Amino acid sequence: MCGIVGYIGPEGAAPILMDELSRLEYRGYDSAGISTIEKNKISIMKDVGRVKNLYNLDGIDDLTGTIGIAHTRWATHGKPSKENSHPHQDNSKTFSVVHNGIIENFHELRNMLEENGYNFLSQTDTEVIPNLIHYHYSKLQDNSVHGFLQAVRNCCLDLKGSFAIEVISSLFPENMIVVRKDSPLVIGTCEDEKYISSDIPAILSYTRDFYFLNDLEFALLQNNKATFFDTNLHEINKQTNNIEWTATASEKNGYEDFMLKEIYEQPTAIRETIGSKISIDSKCNFEELNFTKEYLSTIDKIYIIACGTAMHAGLAGKNVIEKLCRIPVEVDIASEFRYRSPIVNEKTLSIFISQSGETADTIAALKLAKHCGSKTIAISNVIGSSITREANYSIYTHAGPEIAVASTKAYTSQVILLNMLAVYFSEILETSDKDTIISIKKEMLDLPKKIEETFSCKDSIKEFAKKIYQEKDVFFLGRGIDETIAKEASLKLKEISYIHSESYAAGELKHGSIALIENGVTVVTVLMDKSLMEKTISNVQEVISRGAKTLVITCHPCDSNMFDEIITVPYTIQYLSPILAIIPLQLLAYYISKEKGLDVDKPRNLAKSVTVE
Ligand code: AGP
User: Fold this and answer.
1) For the structural domain made of 3-246, what CATH number should be given?
2) 380 lines ligand 1 (CB under 6 A)
3) 162 CB less than 6 Å from ligand 1?
4) pLDDT at 121 over 80
């Protein structure tokens, strides 16, 4: 949902900003813009479309300033157009601003500013910010940089909603102010340079040392100095955090697309996420949690809350936690949970899953659960992300940066982490016998090798993709854990191929949806749970009788004459089956998208991180 970057240092800012921006484009790609300061004058260049369009703008090479801010947009207020693109400036052209988030009270602020003589050129909520800064600055009797800071702070106190903001001013050409509230922003630092970004990967090739801001903390940045202030503008100390990710982790490294690279990174992501937490001879070790039997015995319900793919990982988590720990688990969509007045109290343990750690609904749901007295665990892939700073406890997937909008390695890493958590709880609570736990651990440790073996299905999947890429509808079926895999496979297909797809619990089909099955329609069925296989096969027979074309994903022997295509993945226990079964289905979505000539990594209307409601 929009990406913002910034630079201040001895180098020309424009090329660095464009490089940062192109790495951040997965956050939005409707329009892009850049603002620098040359000879105490603000320059702004922007255009609709992709970041690469900026390179063709007349005069872009004349931007020689060493301080600058830039933006790539995912439109919320106002259509994608040059006027609505960021950066925005105030009427006097003194302050230039990029913003990620939503200003909920922009109508009333705009009315107030219009009454005070300000004009607006765009339909955006953002344009109130530079004008409001100007409004406050002109009321202050302080022309020092502290006055600039004070004006930005007073403006932020007037704003309702979420924002990450960078501000530069022609009056203070060697200073930049950044602030965030409920929207992501990190500050990278090295010697005499500061790099600002919505996400870490965009600036990893420049630095691995980062400052993280809490809500309504302000950073005043100069080349060689970063000074931090709380909401009352009292100076505060901040330490840098070193991030282990390497710069090459956010490059394509020879792959055609990030999504394909990330699919192939899954063995490593699983291995890294397991780390040293699982071994056959000792108990699963989550030092970050340090839960006692006494505490876990008081828990009468676990909530798992997330959005999209992360929520699908949560469904796999429910299956294993309920079976191993005998605690009821409810999985909910964050945007629903937060408004349903959920029954949460100190006996509830709430787990929030978010790859980015910045999803607005998930963060809001977490705050609600905490407010109701529940202990909260954040599962994220990004160290220092907002969700991890809000939660009582944080545990991490170690999937490395995920750049493609369609989540792949984050999902499988989340599923393995939830399985590890289930084993951890169960070992403390003594709710499962030792042999069961040992066999799960062995299967976990074997998974990376089995994922490698699963990749051998690539050619068959590619061929199947060629057969069905022009279809309008595809259906996914499964029972039990297989239905959760079908849900994720269906989401993956629709988001990158734009083919309409639905997933159904196989037994539910007869209750209405089978009316949609007609000659030639493709039905993909997941058959990983042996105990439910016969039942599901009967349902597949029903769609075959109505003319459906069938693809089956299984880890069990199956009569290959029955279906149009069978992909057999290595055997694993049903708790871990989402990790193996999803791989051919991620590849199916990928190859269909490629066959259609679409932008796999940046599908239309989507953005990697959903930081607005
Ligand atoms: C996955 O392919 C999606 N693009 C999307 O559903 C995503 O999983 C969801 O927006 C949640 O994101 P998060 O994990 O960063 O919170």
Assistant:
1) 3.60.20.10
2) no
3) no
4) yes
Residue of 477, 533, 474 lying closest to 499 (CA atoms): 474
Calpha distance 469→591 (Å, rounded) = 8
Q: What is the pLDDT of residue 1?
A: 66
307 within ligand 1 shell (Cβ under 6 A): yes
Range with top average pLDDT, 149-158, 270-279, 335-344, 381-390: 149-158
Q: How far apart are CA 513 and CA 510, in angstroms?
A: 6
Q: 3-state class of 291 per DSSP?
A: coil
CATH superfamily to which 456-595 belongs:
Glucose-6-phosphate isomerase like protein; domain 1 (3.40.50.10490)
**Which of 355, 363, 394, 402 has the most ligand 1 atoms within 8 A of CB, as the residue to mutate?**
355
- Residue 448 preceded by cis peptide, ω within 30: no
Domain spans in the chain, listed from the N-terminal domain onward = 3-246, 252-432, 456-595
- From the CA of 225, how far away is ligand 1's center (Å)? 35
- Among 171, 153, 178, which Cα is nearest to 69's? 178
Span 531-541, pLDDT tens digits: 999 999 999 99
DSSP string covering 19-32: HHHHHTGGG--SEE
Residue nearest to atom 10 of ligand 1 (CA): 308
What pLDDT, in 10s, does the model give residues 62-88? 899 999 999 988 777 878 788 888 899
Per-residue pLDDT reduced to its tens digit, 370-404: 999 999 999 999 988 889 999 999 999 999 999 99
| pTM of the predicted model as reported, rounded to 2 decimal places | 0.84
Is residue 149 over pLDDT 90? yes
Sorted by sequence, the CB contacts under 8 Å of residue 63 that are 6+ apart come out as 12, 13, 14, 34, 36, 38, 43, 45
Locate the ligand 1 atom nearest the alpha carbon of residue 492 and give its number.
Answer: 2
495 lines ligand 1 (CB under 6 A): yes
Residue numbers annotated as active site: 2, 608
Q: Same CATH topology for 252-432 and 456-595?
A: yes
Q: How far is the CA of 107 from the centre of ligand 1 (A)?
A: 30
pLDDT value of position 55: 80
> Which tens digits make up the pLDDT trace of 98-110?
999 889 999 999 9
pLDDT at res. 29: 73
Q: Ligand 1, atom 5: nearest CA belongs to which residue? A: 308
Q: For domain 252-432, is the CATH number 3.40.50.10490?
A: yes
